[in-house]
Amino acid sequence: xxxxxxxxxxxxxxxxxxxxxxxxxxxxxxxxxxxxxxxxxxxxxxxxxxxxxxxxxxxxxxxxxxxxxxxxxxxxxxxxxxxxxxxxxxxxxxxxxxxxxxxxxxxxxxxxxxxxxxxxxxxxxxxxxxxxxxxxxxxxxxxxxxxxxxxxxxxxxxxxxxxxxxxxxxxxxxxxxxxxxxxxxxxxxxxxxxxxxxxxxxxxxxxxxxxxxxxxxxxxxxxxxxxxxxxxxxxxxxxxxxxxxxxxxxxxxxxxxxxxxxxxxxxxxxxxxxxxxxxxxxxxxxxxxxxxxxxxxxxxxxxxxxxxxxxxxxxxxxxxxxxxxxxxxxxxxxxxxxxxxxxxxxxxxxxxxxxxxxxxxx
Length: 362
Known about the structure:
Keywords: ATP-binding, Ligase, Nucleotide-binding. ATP-dependent carboxylate-amine ligase which exhibits weak glutamate--cysteine ligase activity. The protein is of the alpha+beta class. The chain has a single domain (100-360), classed as Creatine Kinase, Chain A, domain 2, CATH 3.30.590.20. The protein has 14 helices and 11 strands. The protein has helices at residues 24-34, 60-80, 103-112, 133-143, 147-154, 170-175, 190-203, 236-258, 268-281, 298-308, 310-315, 319-332, 335-346, 349-360; strands at 4-13, 41-43, 49-53, 84-86, 123-129, 159-160, 163-164, 216-218, 224-231, 286-288, 295-297. The strands form 3 sheets. Strands 1, 2, 3, 4, 5, 8 and 9 form a 7-stranded antiparallel sheet that branches. It has a two-stranded antiparallel sheet with strand order 6-7. Strands 10-11 form a two-stranded antiparallel ribbon. α1 (24-34) packs across α2 (60-80) and α8 crosses α12 (319-332).
């Protein structure tokens, strides 16, 4: 069975006011003081962000427990230095990012100018194991039309800089300003994939392979396909659903490749429209159907994803988990919908942030 792990980026905020706090270095120092060999937490581009990465797991319940445990540990360490963690993909209240003092991040700030400030955003990346680069590239080619559905399921960023954006995943719109971000064309082979990455590096527009910000890519560190479209999810159970569906989609894509079924040949232009549509309305209205690229009610499209990956879900024993989690998410709404309801009730974005601090830990 394929392993899957996740990386989550969390926002550091004042627990009482909801104001972002640039204390990630202090949190990391605290973690290293307790365990010099710790590799759970790391810094991100801005000091108001903290990242953690789970271990790879084959059992989804174990992965979910790992996410919850990591969030609680992040909250404990943050509390000891005077802040709290919130699983918010954008900061609802006004903020100016405090750049982490790092040569790589300084290069980004100099290269991309004011756009860099827009990247104080928090995502969730799922790493699913693949057997080889050949299998990995075949999977990337077949995942492309399904990634906007994962974005819709994870949507958790309706507010930014004190404003209602009119999107449910505005994080993805901000991130799309990065020159290497977004959907990709069909690669067809590892040689073509690695050739394109080499050409991008040679252009000088990006600094290193870590800045190849495709919606899904071969990991430079691990033998995995890394799916990068999701907002960080407000609730840990949504993260577990995302990882479950990511693994099922990867397994389904690999089986289709081995069976000789061709990858869907949707243009990058259509995939960009699907990505925008998912970021705009999420599960609230329509999504573009991954097969036809025509609008359909979002719940129907999510059910289509479950049907498409149904054999893989059944073989991993995750069918009931996925179906129940989808039903709950469609009933309760995404993190974006929860934020919007909180704002309607309280009239205060600061209250939205402080309540999301509580929901981050369940």
